[in-house]
Amino acid sequence: MNRKRLLPFIVPISILLFWSIITHFHFVSKLFVPTPIEFVSALLLLVFSGEIIGHVLATLYRTLAGFLVACIIGIPIGLLMGYSNRIYSSLEFVVEFFRSIPATALFPLFLLVFGIGDESKIALSAWSAGLVLIVNAMYGVHLGKELRLKAAKTMHVSGLDTMTKIIFPEALPQIFTGMRVAISLSLIIVVVAEMFVGTTYGLGRQIMDAQLVYRVGEMYSYIFAAGIVGFILNKGFMQIEHRIVHWKGK
Question: In terms of Cα–Cα distance, which of 41, 59, 19, 27 is closest to 225?
Fold first, then answer.
């Protein structure tokens, strides 16, 4: 039992030891990789000064706002595409085409339409996350039990009841899988957008600013903060999924 509890710490400790060795013996220049002590010092300074909190909250707000918009739009479209062959045939090319375009290539377009404020970052993250949710919701319907749909048709269950009582619950496990991918993608898009799209607050902006003046300890601290935000969001959705989709795998 004790060994199982130690397993999650083996890789982080190994990385820390490797990091300490390569910086102590100067295998890598401090201009690129700070020592663990320098990193921790910079991180603690940002935390206790409160400077990092505002940037974390700004990035988190943009991420969650984009993700929420993606859920509101993407999940219903995906369910309808999975349920209706006509809707699927009408939207298949559009969805697959835009999925093939890197989100970063759309920065100029979203800047033209939404400006340099939060709206462009939220819209871009919603766009990228929404496409992921559309595909996962659609396949969630396709992977559902056909026998239940046939039984519903035999019993003349209405279209709305079929959607809410059969199709949506069947697709929910796949939808939650898509939501976990979408929230991570939304965070990635927001951080990258903050680097290149005009803003003064956000983890991406601070990572870029610290890199430009070679404050590597501070740069790694903001990168670490972005990773922690993503980890917490992912773990949070896992807990929600276990509570809501309690029948998954049974």
Answer: 59
How far is 22 from 33, CA to CA, in rounded Å? 9
Q: What count of Cα atoms within 13 Å lies in the side-chain half-sphere of residue 166? A: 20
155 φ, ψ (degrees, to nearest 5): -90, 10
- The total of other beta-carbon atoms located within 10 Å of residue 46's CB is 21
Q: Look at residue 14 and give its three-state secondary structure.
A: helix
Q: How many CB atoms lie within 10 A of CB 112?
A: 9
Q: Which helix (H) or strand (E) holds 137?
A: helix 118-142
Those residues whose C-beta lies under 8 Å from the C-beta of residue 30, and which sit 6 or more positions away, are 23, 38, 216
Ordered by where they begin, the domains of the chain are 33-244 (1.10.3720.10)
pTM, entire model: 0.86
Residue by residue, pLDDT tens for the chain (250 residues) are 466 677 777 888 888 898 888 888 888 887 888 888 989 999 999 999 888 999 999 999 999 999 999 999 999 999 888 888 888 888 888 888 988 888 888 888 888 888 888 888 999 999 999 999 999 999 888 776 565 666 666 666 666 666 667 777 788 888 999 999 999 999 999 999 988 876 788 899 999 999 888 889 899 999 999 999 999 999 888 888 888 876 665 5
Residue with tokens 């013996």: 25
CB 218 within 8 A of CB 42: yes
Residue 205 is which amino acid? R
Task: Say how far residue 144 (Cα) sits from the centre of its chain.
Answer: 25
